[in-house]
């Protein structure tokens, strides 16, 4: 989930950029204090050898990754009759990534694929997705208990929820503020995960994410794909060391991006459409949308510079200027993740977020899961600010997708049609604009109804291994709003069944 924009960060950034637009870097005064305030509990020196090992049921290592280990527990929470694991991937550079894994409910252990799920933010925990959207349980009001989610994604698939980048959720250690570096960490995590659980060694891998996951997913898939190519080349040349034989070609089969931000240049053009002329009643006045349209050419010029140089000097001003276009929406009081409802329950606009915080701050829950972190926050302001300042926001992560498609890795882009912040218009537009060998055929493909239980759940278009799905009646967190339909989407996708 969540939040691209709403969190206080955007408001700060936007306000700073909006007033003295000629001095975008003034914003530093607003943003830097949050950035340097190490309100985070950690930066603790928890190198593997120092961590108390008593609570873990096993600790896995592999010779091919000498500086990594996986600490594993078998918690009994959330889904009492489902095999589950939680724990940390540790590296010797003081990096500790937390994960929570659930086996498929209705498929054979050896056959079910693995879905890796990452929420966005940047800085939001994937456990928000677990406890609100697609995990086997949903948090109850007040955050003391959970109830079963019958449309959980671990229906036909095993699902791993991973807290990344570092210092998100229960993960902790050194900071990483760019999606590419984060993707490499996920590659190592998966190597060790497949190594530690041979019972899943045949499981195909699907990497899914939401929102800022539109960055993480392509970056992670690139790291996996390139890691696989390098491994295969070395293997074929007979150059693998004895230890390296433990590594494997990770069975990356597909990626999925839900209400993501991947191609800002295309996507920022459609905010006015979503605000004034969507399939839902308008949120802003036409003159406010006209103003957004007048700002877009400057925004586009700045994003183009970011795409060209891909450095902070070019990318940071683009983010500041373009996000200031969204101020009017922020002020409207409408939920930027769902134009049908008001923003209630604080920054993140959903009261259930406070319940998730309460649940994951419960010391009993933390002990059962094995968290080393005592203070859980759904979305880390520090990580959010760090990504903003690093210039990562506007970078062209969609460009990582064509090599995947050409290599036979399937790509699904889907979007709930009531979301403003990563709206379906912008997402559909970038899938049509994407330069790959099937571009013109994808562009001329018709949108067809995708039917679930006799009713149109949305529209879909597919050409070869590339699909775009628009989901009716869903906001940014589409599985929260349309659980049954999203499960249908996932199950069709992993079983290679068509949407229409
Ligand atoms: C788990 O299994 C036990 C024994 O079969 C059953 O009584 C219980 O209701 C199950 N719990 C859930 C949440 O399905
Ligand atoms: C609103 O959308 C409709 C249908 O997509 C389009 O025909 C119309 O030109 C749009 N109006 C404005 C003011 O952009
Ligand atoms: C589509 O993906 C499958 C793997 O699922 C692959 O075998 C096939 O070659 C791909 N097709 C194209 C046209 O890339």
UniProtKB/TrEMBL annotation:
Which Pfam families does this one have? Peptidase_S10
Which Gene3D superfamilies does the UniProt entry name for this protein?
A: 1.10.287.410, alpha/beta hydrolase
Q: Does the keyword DNA-binding apply?
A: no
Signal peptide span: 1-18
One annotated Gene Ontology cellular component of this protein:
fungal-type vacuole
Instruction: Share an example GO biological-process annotation for this protein.
Output: proteolysis
- Segments spanning the bilayer are none
PROSITE patterns per record:
CARBOXYPEPT_SER_SER
Gene Ontology MF: a single term = serine-type carboxypeptidase activity
Lipoprotein recorded as keyword: no
What's the EC number here? Answer: 3.4.16.-
Keyword list, A-Z: Carboxypeptidase, Glycoprotein, Hydrolase, Protease, Signal
| Top-level taxon | Eukaryota
Q: Which family does it belong to?
A: Belongs to the peptidase S10 family.
Q: What is this protein called?
A: Carboxypeptidase
């Amino acid at each position: 989930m969540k939040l691209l924009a709403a969190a206080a960060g955007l408001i700060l950034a936007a306000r700073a950029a909006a007033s003295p637009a000629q001095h975008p870097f003034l914003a530093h005064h607003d943003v830097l204090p949050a950035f340097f305030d190490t309100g985070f509990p950690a930066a603790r020196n928890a190198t593997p050898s120092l961590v108390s090992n008593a609570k873990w049921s096993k600790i896995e290592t592999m010779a091919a990754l000498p500086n990594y280990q996986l600490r594993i527990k078998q918690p009994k929470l959330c889904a009492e009759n489902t095999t589950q694991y939680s724990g940390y991937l540790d590296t010797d550079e003081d990096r500790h990534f937390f994960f929570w894994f659930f086996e498929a409910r209705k498929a054979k252990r050896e056959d079910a694929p693995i879905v890796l799920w990452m929420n966005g933010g940047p800085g939001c925990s994937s456990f928000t997705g677990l406890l609100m959207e697609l995990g086997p349980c949903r948090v109850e009001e007040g955050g003391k208990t959970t109830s079963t989610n019958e449309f959980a994604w671990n229906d036909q698939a095993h699902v791993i929820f991973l807290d990344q980048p570092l210092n998100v959720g229960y993960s902790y250690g050194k900071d990483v503020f760019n999606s590419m570096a984060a993707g490499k960490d996920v590659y190592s995590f998966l190597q060790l995960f497949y190594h530690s659980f041979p019972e899943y060694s045949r499981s195909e891998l699907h990497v899914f994410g939401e929102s800022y996951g539109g960055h993480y997913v392509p970056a992670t898939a690139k790291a996996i794909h390139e890691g696989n190519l390098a491994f295969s080349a070395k293997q074929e040349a007979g150059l693998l060391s004895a230890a390296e034989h433990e590594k494997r070609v990770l069975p990356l089969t597909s990626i999925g991006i839900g209400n993501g931000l991947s191609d800002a240049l295309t996507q920022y053009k459609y905010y006015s459409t979503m605000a004034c002329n969507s399939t839902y009643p308008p949120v802003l006045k036409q003159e406010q949308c006209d103003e957004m349209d007048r700002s877009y050419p400057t925004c586009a010029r700045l994003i183009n510079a970011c795409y060209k140089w891909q450095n902070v000097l070019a990318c940071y001003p683009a983010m500041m200027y373009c996000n200031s276009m969204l101020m009017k929406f922020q002020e409207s009081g409408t939920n930027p993740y769902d134009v049908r409802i008001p923003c209630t329950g604080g920054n993140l606009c959903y009261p259930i977020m406070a319940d998730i915080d309460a649940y994951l701050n419960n010391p009993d829950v933390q002990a059962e899961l094995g968290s080393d972190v005592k203070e859980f926050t759904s979305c880390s302001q520090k990580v959010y600010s760090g990504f903003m300042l690093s210039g990562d926001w506007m970078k062209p992560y969609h460009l990582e997708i064509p090599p995947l498609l050409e290599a036979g890795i399937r790509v699904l882009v889907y979007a709930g049609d009531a979301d403003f912040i990563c709206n379906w218009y912008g997402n559909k537009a970038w899938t049509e604009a994407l330069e790959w060998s099937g571009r013109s055929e994808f562009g001329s493909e018709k949108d067809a109804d995708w039917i679930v239980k006799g009713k149109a759940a949305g529209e879909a278009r597919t050409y070869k291994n590339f699909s775009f799905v628009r989901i009716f009646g869903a906001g940014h967190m589409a599985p929260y709003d349309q659980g049954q339909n999203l499960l249908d989407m996932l199950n069709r996708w992993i079983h290679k069944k068509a949407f229409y």
